[in-house]
Specification:
Length: about 575
């Protein structure tokens, strides 16, 4: 067992598991179980291989290498008893893209045994009270150990130097700058929105309006643009002086731009009060701008990382790879309340996917990604208005919304689902009107608990898969629930089993298909049209644009070539299903 470092005194300065996941950034690992939440402390990262004894101490994140089945479950129990914080394993639940089957097949066939093993290991971790992390198959153990240990060590160093307290928030920084300069300070972003300000009573009219309105008055902003102040603040670190203007109620000011490299982040403004500014105010202001830049970047990075973690946890929950408690520990949702999932998809073969310039030309990848990002933003706005705790993520090219905490009132299950359908229709309509995107959406059924969310997501996916092409202007067919397309979903599932198991197919139907392929006849499509029309030769012939007698001849010929008894309802039914595989191979 390798990887321990530091003394027992250092072990007290652990890093919350949540912080470690945030620092890792990209989803290198997934949270499979977090029975004690994500604020448990990690102090050391150690590697345990099959030849080692299952030893650990409090605060350890143990990387468990090459152990499977019952032995892995036993080691998880032992490590939990020894006080380890978390265990990381490779569960192989993430199949490479080239090994994935179609969406319908994947959801209609039995999960592989390795998924069952993962669920058993997760259950063991939950019972033992220890966090379980699932590591992506392509990640090297030694690199993961090195990176995680570095993150923990950096956090320990930061804590020992009390850097977090020194940094403080932007309001604290504004107050510090006020003490150094002897003025009244406001920190603004690049859009002149006030982010923080210092306290003080000697404010002029401009500062009063800026603080109350959280943005400088437009008339004064226009003057600053005219004087070239904003151009100077964006161009570099020069401290800009703005003279007093009594006629405007404006006292003397200093300002400096806040930059990250060449990118402007905002500005710091210092208003002079009844006393002159400090002698070294400009020098202090320049240093403050550089320090504030680091703080603003840190805040943005933390916010971005926090959002990524939420999205990663939501994706893992939708795929059934984590327990609901892991998500509930990060987001304020109640795992014991009802929830449902809505799935959105850019409609392929219509405006959003192939209006990239020349007729029939598909937009390039950046353009598609931009459209998907705009769709995510639009969906987020609409669903947040409906439910503050709504969560949005993207998974396998689709946008998913989790609507949690749905408490049933007088409206009941049906009322909740109908209100979500109405919300979804408004969102789809807005996507078309505001963004020019053609979107389809499916509303999954209401489930009783957050842990059942994967079932709602699976149903929403099946509904989306079963929805046919949406005619122009037919907004009613852009949103569906399982009740709208249940027969298509059942047929798709049945065809998936037929496709996966050749032993279920009738060799007589295969004989008919091979006859068409070798002889160039069209008996397959003629017979299928006849069966779909319930034996109405005239209706089927009209659909195929041929004479009814021609169709009757083809049907008799198909029965003769194949040997199928079309008077037998069972043979007719199975022939129709198998012929659908030939007509719609991807269905």
């Amino acid at each position: 067992m390798t990887g321990h470092s530091g003394s027992e005194e250092e072990a007290e300065a652990g890093l919350p598991l949540r912080g470690l996941l945030l620092a890792l950034g990209d989803p290198v690992v997934d949270v499979a179980a977090a029975p004690q939440g994500l604020d448990v402390l990690v102090d050391n990262v150690v590697i345990l291989d099959p030849e080692d004894r299952a030893e650990a101490r409090e605060g350890d994140l143990v990387l468990l290498i090459g152990v499977r089945g019952e032995r892995a479950r036993r080691m998880v129990r032992v490590l939990a008893e020894r006080g380890a914080t978390a265990v990381a394993v490779k569960t192989d639940t993430h199949a490479p893209a080239e090994e994935r089957t179609s969406t319908t097949e994947r959801r209609s066939t039995r999960p592989p045994r390795r998924i069952d093993e993962t669920l058993a290991l997760r259950g063991e971790a939950e019972d033992a009270g220890i966090a379980l992390l699932s590591v992506r198959p392509e990640v090297r153990w030694d690199q993961l150990q090195s990176v995680c240990q570095s993150i923990v060590d950096d956090a320990r160093l930061t804590a020992s130097e009390d850097m977090a307290e020194a940094g403080g928030d932007l309001f604290s920084m504004a107050q510090t700058i006020a003490h150094l300069t002897g003025g009244l300070v406001s920190i603004e972003d690049s859009a002149s929105r006030v982010l923080a300000y210092s306290s003080g009573a000697e404010v002029d009219e401009l500062r009063r309006l800026s603080v109350l309105g959280r943005q400088g008055p437009e008339s004064y902003l226009a003057l600053l643009r005219e004087w070239g102040v904003f151009a100077k603040l964006r161009s570099g670190e020069e401290v800009v002086r703005i003279d007093e203007h009594p006629e405007l109620g404006i006292r003397r000011r200093l300002a400096v731009g806040i930059h990250a490299g060449r990118r402007p982040l905002g500005a710091i403004w210092v208003q002079e009060g009844t006393e002159p500014l400090a002698e070294h105010a400009e020098e202090a202001l320049l240093g403050a701008a550089r320090t504030t830049a680091l703080q603003m970047i840190r805040q943005r990075t933390q916010a971005s990382a926090g959002l990524r973690l939420r999205e990663d946890l939501l994706s893992s929950l939708l795929e059934g790879r984590i327990d609901a408690s892991a998500l509930a520990d990060t987001v304020e949702v109640h795992p014991d309340r009802a929830a449902l999932v809505v799935a959105f998809s850019l409609h392929q073969g219509s405006g959003a996917e192939d209006d990239g310039g020349t007729a029939g030309e598909r937009p390039d990848r950046p353009e598609r990604e931009l459209r998907r990002r705009r769709l995510i933003d639009l969906v987020s706005v609409h669903t947040a208005a409906y439910r503050r705790s709504s969560l949005v993520t993207e998974l396998e090219g689709r946008v998913y919304v989790l609507l949690p905490d749905l408490v049933r009132g007088r409206e009941g299950r049906h009322g909740i689902e109908q209100s979500v359908v109405a919300l979804t229709r408004r969102t789809v309509t807005a996507a078309r009107a505001a963004l020019g995107l053609r979107v389809r959406a499916a509303v999954g059924s209401l489930v009783e608990h957050l842990g059942e969310v994967p079932a709602s997501r699976t149903e929403a996916d099946l509904v989306l898969d079963a929805m046919g092409p949406v005619p122009d202007g037919d907004a009613g067919r852009e949103v569906a629930t399982i009740s709208d397309v249940r027969s298509r979903v059942l047929i798709s599932g049945t065809l998936a089993h037929l496709r996966a198991d050749p032993s279920l197919r009738d060799p007589r139907v295969n004989r008919l298909i091979e006859h068409d392929r070798s002889g160039g006849a069209d008996l397959v499509h003629s017979l299928l049209a006849y069966l779909e029309a319930f034996g109405d030769a005239r209706a089927a012939a009209e659909r195929l644009h041929i004479h009814p007698n021609t169709l009757r001849y083809r049907v008799r010929r198909a029965a003769s070539v194949s040997g199928i008894d079309l008077s037998d309802p069972g043979e007719r039914l199975f022939a129709q299903l198998q012929l659908l595989l030939e007509r719609d191979p991807g269905r």
